Amino acid sequence: MPFRLLIPLGLVCVLLPLHHGAPGPDGTAPDPAHYRNHMVVPTLRPVSAPFSRLVFGFWPPTLFLIPRTRERVKAMFYHAYDSYLENAFPYDELRPLTCDGHDTWGSFSLTLIDALDTLLILGNTSEFQRVVEVLQDNVDFDIDVNASVFETNIRVVGGLLSAHLLSKKAGVEVEAGWPCSGPLLRMAEEAARKLLPVSDALAFQTPTGMPYGTVNLLHGVNPGETPVTCTAGIGTFIVEFATLSSLTGDPVFEDVARVALMRLWESRSDIGLVGNHIDVLTGKWVAQDAGIGAGVDSYFEYLVKGAILLQDKKLMAMFLEYNKAIRNYTHFDDWYLWVQMYKGTVSMPVFQSLEAYWPGLQSLIGDIDNAMRTFLNYYTVWKQFGGLPEFYNIPQGYTVEKREGYPLRPELIESAMYLYRATGDPTLLELGRDAVESIEKISKVECGFATIKDLRDHKLDNRMESFFLAETVKYLYLLFHPNNFIHNNGSTFDSVMTPHGECILGAGGYIFNTEAHPIDPAALHCCRRLKEEQWEVEDLMREFYSLKESRARARRKTMRSGPWEPPAEPGTLSSPENHDQPRGKQPAKQRTPLLSCPSQPFTSKLALLGQVFLDSS
To answer: Which portions of the sequence form the region Disordered (predicted)?
Structure first.
């Protein structure tokens, strides 16, 4: 190569963003084989590649495709988003094969809520501002509809909270008192209160404090509603509800979330595992199979993310105890199997696509080597099929009957994004590139992207889940956008002046809820301090005027004094604390039954989990 060509090549490489990762012997990012053969936890520090490596172009070709792939991801988003607006709004979701819409998890224009913060991450502030107005004008929670408590929380409450905290960055004119007040925050609070134990008919009002899986938004829990709920449907509230308590000043949200977490912790087996489904009235396990996948997954996720968000060492200690039991009983050759929660014997040698979040979660606790080894196992399945089948039989190395589909789930891409931030390993970019190509080739249709019903013959299903825009596309974009504001390391920030002083926001450290809605931890601490000062003034006024206090001191004390100490031994349940415009839709369609948990049907010969994985039909 002529020397004159080396100079521009070197300049191009120098302009490439440097990544964080585990340094190899020469200070560069390690080869993927490092993770297969060594047990050295990488340190998180910038990679300093030698100039010779930059000039002579030894970086894998994937690195040079980052800007191009990022634009392809953006085009994917707008093809799906525009198709939803044109064909499905104001319904919850798009049906891409028939180019119309239908309600799924309620009747909230769910895809619009789920996609809102993705718009800002992609840089579209004008559309973000427009959608904020549309949601305020069109979404109503006083409706006679049965809604999943779990999905309403992670998608609706989580999406509105994230959009609220990102409003100022998106150019929305915020009201005085923001981020501790605002219209989207009030909408999130309204939705969450539909789930609270204000009366005997609402979701969290049970003898154990563990919530029902389904609630009618107008009438509460229906008579005859099943008390059996999955573990994730009980333990996936602390991120959203603690955020609500901090922003609104009402500790009841965080209180009920902590009660639910603690009841699950107290219900673990003697060997430290939790099952899949539990009776929320009796606290007895109905499905006694333990794993990290469907029905359990986000419970573990929220112990870690709740610990980081709230700087809560006790939540992290709980997860680390679970992690020991998981490694002792479910971990085999860098796969995770299902086992009987009391005996630890294998009940199902299957990898589920929902389990692919686990390497990303491991990266958050610094367990990079184990995370990469498991990720590489999962990636081999992706490369075998061009996607992750819902169930994969590990011994047979093939899909499970009737679970061959890929509904465009984000979990493996999510793990790739987290691990790439931690290591800079270009293998992770290869997964992202493969995902873009697979989804475009197999799933893209005229009206959006369709769920893949069968990865073997590429048959499609007439559904595009809202999480495709909330999670899958978002994580892909962030994987290929290392300088996005979400990845801020504190080098920049926004200063917001309040009557109580200066608040620093947007400095980074965003915590994604399980629907990939980012929460700024700084806002929680800013508003919590503000609300506590307001409570002190209110207390003084009540004492002066001898007025009846409207908030129980015990609830405030719980919030101020920090989290509860987890019990030393499992198995004992105690009673929770007492806590005191029309839309022009298409012609009405018959409503399909709603799922109360993120469960997956399992009807093959390996159906050893009984009623854990029920079909929604």
So the answer is: 555-601
What are the structure tokens assigned to 313, written together?
Answer: 């060492």
**Terminal Cα-to-Cα distance of the chain (whole angstroms):** 64
Is residue 83 within 8 Å of residue 91, measured between CB atoms?
A: no
Tokens standing for 296? 């359990």
Q: Provide the mean pLDDT of the chain.
A: 83
Among 232, 206, 218, smallest CA distance to 515 is for 232
Any idea of the CA torsion for 490, 495, 498, 500, to the nearest 10 degrees?
A: 50
d(CA 120, CA 198): 35
pLDDT one-digit tens code per residue, 156-200: 999 999 999 999 999 999 998 899 999 999 999 999 999 985 544
Residues 6+ apart with CB under 8 A from 73: 436, 473, 476, 477, 480
Q: Which residue has the higher pLDDT, 38 or 358?
A: 358
**Tokens linked to 182:** 């605002």
Give dist(CA 448, CA 457) in Å, integer.
20
> Which residue do the tokens 């939803």 mark?
84
Residue closest to 161 by CA, chosen among 264, 237, 223, 70: 237
Residue with tokens 């980074």: 508
Alpha helix ranges (H) inside 238-367 = 238-248, 252-266, 297-310, 313-329, 358-364
Query: What does residue 348 show for φ and ψ, rounded to 5 degrees?
Result: -155, 110
Range from 5-14, 460-469, 593-602 carrying the lowest mean pLDDT:
5-14
pLDDT of 202 strictly over 70:
no
The DSSP element (H or E) to which 518 belongs, if any, is strand 518-519
- pTM confidence score: 0.81
Among the residue ranges 302-316, 443-457, 492-506, the one predicted with the least confidence is 492-506
| E strand segments, 335-380 | 335-336, 338-340, 346-348, 350-352
Q: How many helices (H) and strands (E) does the chain have?
A: 23, 25
User: Running DSSP on this structure, what letter comes out for residue 489?
Assistant: B
Residue 423 annotated as part of some ligand binding site: no
Distance of CA 359 to the CA centre of its chain: 14
Q: How far apart are CA 220 and CA 62, in angstroms?
A: 52
| Closest residue by Cα to residue 432 from 371, 482, 467, 394 | 482
Question: What are the structure tokens assigned to 25, written together?
Answer: 């012997």
Which residues are designated catalytic? 151, 297, 390, 411
Query: Could you tell me where the DSSP H helices lie in 88-195?
Result: 110-121, 125-138, 149-151, 158-166, 183-193
Residue 394 has pLDDT above 90, yes or no: yes
Question: Of 8-17, 58-67, 215-224, 498-507, which gets the smallest average pLDDT?
Answer: 8-17
CB 530 within 8 A of CB 522: no
Q: How far apart are CA 495 and CA 552, in angstroms?
A: 33
